[in-house]
Amino acid sequence: MIVGIGVDIVDVARLRAALERTHGLRDRLFTDAERGLPVESLAARFAAKEAVAKALGAPPGLGHRDAEITTGAHGRPVLGVTGRVAEVAAEQGVERWHVSLSHDGGFAVAYVIAEG
User: Fold this and answer.
1) Is 32 within any annotated ligand binding site?
2) Is the pTM higher than 0.85?
């Protein structure tokens, strides 16, 4: 059963400018495993974090670093959740996440399905 669906799109140049302009933003938004990636990949991951929040109904207190997108087998994105995101997901009965990421033409998009 689908518990929630979220989608988000990010302007890569806008994220790049924000990361260059705001000291510490990269550390506030991304986990250690994500920080070293190219900005296009960071934009896709930021979109996924926003999509996770939307899939959960955007409850207060969610942290960007409580959702981490790593690369699994054959390049497939894998979502791991901790902290408040994991707590809310458990309350809502989420047992599995499905994530799709893409970037092209200066934009990154993510689609997230929370399955129970």
Assistant:
1) no
2) yes
Q: How far apart are CA 88 and CA 58, in angstroms?
A: 10
**How would you label 65-96 residue by residue, b for 16+ Cβ within 10 Å and e otherwise?**
bbbbbeeeeeeebebebeebbeebbeeeebee
Domain residue limits at 19: 2-92+101-115
Q: Is 15 helix (H, G, I), strand (E, B) or coil?
A: helix
Token digits for 28?
A: 């506030």
Tell whether residue 20 is among the known ligand binding residues.
Answer: no
- Residue-wise pLDDT for 56-83, tens only, equals 999 999 999 999 999 998 999 999 999 9
- Give me the CATH number covering residue 35: 3.90.470.20
With the C-alpha atoms ordered 29, 19, 71, 93, is the resulting torsion angle positive or negative?
positive
Parts of the chain with a pLDDT under 50: none
